[in-house]
Structure formats: C-alpha cells, structure tokens
Amino acid sequence: MKKRVGIEALAVAVPSRYVDIEDLARARGVDPAKFTSGLGAKEMAVTDPGEDTVALAATAAARLLKQQDVDPSRIGMLVVGTETGIDHSKPVASHVQGLLKLPRTMRTYDTQHACYGGTAGLMAAVEWIASGAGAGKVAVVVCSDIARYGLNTAGEPTQGGGAVALLVSEQPDLLAMDVGLNGVCTMDVYDFWRPVGRREALVDGHYSINCYLEALSGAYRGWREKAVAAGLVRWSGTMPGEQLARIAYHVPFCKMARKAHAQLRLCDLEDAVGPGPGTPEARDEVAKSQASYDTQVASSLGLNARIGNVYTASLYLALAGLLQREGAQLAGQRIGLLSYGSGCMAEFYSGTVGEKAAERMARADLASVLAKRERVSIEEYERLMKLASDAPEPVAPAPGAFRLTEIREHKRVYAEGTP
Ligand code: CAA
Predict the structure, then answer these.
(1) For ligand 1, what atom is nearest to the CA of residue 206?
(2) Which of 208, 211, 249 is the pocket-test mutation for ligand 1 (most atoms within 8 Å of CB)?
(3) Cα(13) to centroid of ligand 1, in Å?
(4) 262-274 burial: b if 16+ Cβ within 10 Å, else e
(5) In what helix (H) or strand (E) does residue 286 lie, and over which residues does it extend?
(6) What are the beta bridge partners of residue 161?
(7) Gap between the Cα atoms of 233 and 214, Å rounded
(8) What is the pTM of this model?
(9) In terms of CB atoms within 10 Å, which of 170, 256, 306, 326 comes out highest?
C-alpha cells in the first residue's frame, strides 16, 4: 500500500511589532483604500535586526516541537527554505539545529528559489519519506523570511516577516499530500530579485504579477492533467478547479490571491470542451466570480492580511489561516495549493485535510501568537528600518523566542528568552 505522507503539524513565529496599514498609507499621502481594498492588507509585520531569519526560524521550530510534543530523536531531516539567508555558506538550518540542540544524526540544509524555496524543501522532505529513505524518521521544514523593499517604494505596503515550521511525516494530521501529482512550471525571468550584498529586493512589480499568473497557468494545467487521469477531478458537472474544496495561493499581498484564482478558473474555462461562456469577455467575467472566490479562497487570507508578505512562508500562512478557521469542516476534503517563487517557478499540488486538523491547529494557538505583538507608529517603524542589520539593539528576547544579540568576528550570536 502507498504510504500516506504529508504535514502533521505546524507552528508560526511572527516579529514582535507591526504597523497598521492605514497609518502607513496616511504617512505616505496615499488613500488608505488603495492599501486595504486595492492590496487587501490590514497590518504589516515589522522586524528589527535582532529578529533575523535565523531567530524567526528557530522560534518557529522550537514552538513546533514544544506545542506538538515532538521527540527530537524522531527528526532525520531539517530544511530551511529562505530567500533572506544570512551567510553565503553557513545555512540557517545549521543555526536552528544548534540553537534547538537537535541530534547530530540528521540532514540539515537550506533551499533557495525566491518564495518557492520552502515548497522545494517540503517536496524534498515528502519524497524522502514517501520513498522509504527516511526509514520512519520525520522531517522539519521551516519557511523563514523578511520581505523588505524599502521606505517609500511601491512594494513598501507589501513587506512583512515571519516563519512557519512544518512537521512532515507518515501521520499527516493536517494535510495528506497527493504525492506525484504535482504540476510545475519554470521560466527564466527578472521579475523580482535581490543581487548579492543588497538588503532590499528589486522588483518589476506589475511584470511580476504577470509572471506569477503565467507560471500558475502552467503549473495548474500540469496538476490538472494528472489529477484527471488519477480520477481525483473530472471534466464533467463543475470545472475541475471547482472540485477542490479550497485553494491556498502564494500571497505576496492578499489581492494577488484573488487575481490568481481568476487565472486558475480561466485555465479551466479556456480548456473546457463543449458550450461555455463564448466570448473572451464573458469568460473573464465568469473567471472573476465573487462567489467562487468567497467559497474557495477568502477564508485562507486572515493571517496574510495581518502579517504581510513572508516570501517562502506566505503560502503556508495561508494554509495555517485556512485550517485555523475551517480545519474541522474541511476534514476529509481535498484542497489545492499554489506555490510561486520569482525568477521564476510555480508548483501546484493537492492534498486531503486530516481528521485531526482542528485539534493540531488548536495546539498551534495562532490567536495568541498574533495577540502578543505590539503596534508601533510609523516613526518607530522608520527608525527600525534604518538600523544597521549587523547591530541588533540590546532587547531581551520574549519567553520562548530567539534573538540575534551580536555579531562577533563575523559569527552570529543568539539568545533564547527563558519561559
Ligand atoms: N482605492 C481602492 N483601490 C485602489 C485605489 C483606491 N484609492 N488606488 C489604487 N487601487 C487599486 C488598483 O486598482 C490596483 O488594483 P488592481 O490590481 O486590482 O487593479 C491596486 O490598488 C494596486 O494599485 P497599483 O497597481 O496602482 O499599485 P502600485 O503600482 O503602487 O503597486 C504592486 C502594486 C506592483 C503590487 C507593488 O506593491 C509591488 O511592486 N509589490 C511587490 C511585488 C509583488 O508583490 N509582486 C507579486 C508577484 S511576485 C511574487 O509573488 C513573489 C513575491 O512574493 C514578491
């Protein structure tokens, strides 16, 4: 019998501060409706130099092990997906292994392909377990990033930061994955990039949206072909995409999920045989269906709207937000997931929500993770943005959280807040 493999549990770490997105709009002389309804944002996480990619990853991974009572000796693989790594050579994963005092008998490495890096790590872990190579061990995959475009840029309201740690095993209480049915699409483009040595990303914003939609189309069609052949969805009755109970997308800003969903529906409408909406205009109209968006997408965006872009972690924040709200009613139902990384690469995959999803999400206690944050003024946010990345302020880490305390002879030193 084929192994059941997928995500057993997850944990989320967020920076300790955030700004209200309407405060940011007013400070920039922009109509707040552009950021709230135009981009779909409510709040934006703000990091300081002490909350770097390692600190966020270690906090999320430690929380996962504690909340979900994971025996560290079960872990055989630790992968960190990130596009905001802190060293050209030493991986974030090695810091996490050391800070959490995890056993030496495991593979540790980072995966990078812009926002797709976390999914690359997840697929490596899933396939490692499914192949039998894991020999009964579990994997921890951490997606950790800080999205930073800079003050007064078009991308500024789409910044954010945080980490999501995923426990991958043969007991997929959150999501049993349809291994082998993934659809992928890759294209060599300059839509978003961060040359070596730069702290802020460079982005061709509107072009990046088009690249995302084109790559999504290729990845979704690839998945759909295999899913139809496997009998998971059909070209009869409703459209194949409509047969997924929910679809979680990569969310650089919440409005992007709405655009992505319309594009996915357009793929089905364009490829359907038989009578359908005739003209391209009529197809566009049906693709943008508000009812379909409300049913299949809207409920996944609660965390993304309050945290902002977390690059590799954005899709997994959407999954967390979805299961936090609807874990119980979705148990046993198939959902779709779309990962996108600039440069670019998209992967569409599917899985079935586990019977214990609601119980696992209750343990993750996401409401209190967000409630502990402090709202800061735009002046304070700007001050934090201007701090040098290698000079963290002397702030005591919160209980259970890690912070970068200093960089001594090019070596990073971290402290953990005592509970
Ligand atoms: N009231 C309501 N809505 C308003 C408004 C108002 N007063 N003013 C503008 N809007 C709407 C616009 O109509 C637009 O909506 P639509 O896209 O539905 O038409 C929306 O607000 C945004 O307006 P603009 O397009 O004029 O905004 P902009 O040019 O200033 O920047 C952006 C938007 C390009 C997304 C920019 O924020 C950006 O560059 N972000 C970073 C890049 C990014 O996130 N790309 C996504 C794809 S790449 C990816 O996914 C990888 C990744 O994580 C980065």
Answers:
(1) 34
(2) 208
(3) 26
(4) bbbbbbbbeeeee
(5) helix 280-287
(6) 146
(7) 22
(8) 0.98
(9) 256
Tokens of 333: 């139902």
Tokens of 76: 């055989």
- Angstrom distance (rounded) from CA 393 to CA 60: 21
**412 near 89, Cβ under 8 Å?**
no
Query: Average pLDDT in the 359-383 region?
Result: 98
| Nearest-angstrom CA–CA distance, 143 and 145 | 7
State the pLDDT confidence band at 217, using cuts at 50, 70 and 90: very high
Confidence of residue 276 (pLDDT cuts 50, 70, 90): confident
Question: In the beta sheet, which residues pair with residue 107?
Answer: 77
Percent of the chain at pLDDT > 70 equals 100
| Tokens standing for residue 403 | 């912070």
Which of 26, 30, 158, 159 for a ligand 1 pocket mutation test, highest count of atoms within 8 Å of Cβ? 158
For the stretch 19-61, pLDDT in tens is 999 999 999 999 999 999 999 999 999 999 999 999 999 999 9
Question: How far apart are alpha carbons 261 and 294 in whole angstroms?
Answer: 11
* CA distance between the termini of the chain: 44
The span from the CA of 128 to the CA of 144, in Å, is: 21
User: Which residue puts its alpha carbon closest to atom 22 of ligand 1?
Assistant: 38
What separation in angstroms does the CA of 302 have from each of 42, 228, 324, 357? 9, 31, 9, 17
CA distance 42 to 171: 35
What DSSP assignment string belongs to 109-178? EEE-BTBTHHHHHHHHHHHHHHTTTTTT-EEEEEEEEEE---TTSTTGGG-EEEEEEEEEES--SSEEE-
CATH number for domain 6-416, candidates 3.50.50.60, 3.40.50.920, 3.40.47.10, 3.30.450.20: 3.40.47.10
Residue 341, amino acid:
G
- Other CB atoms within a 10 A radius of the CB of residue 132 amount to 9
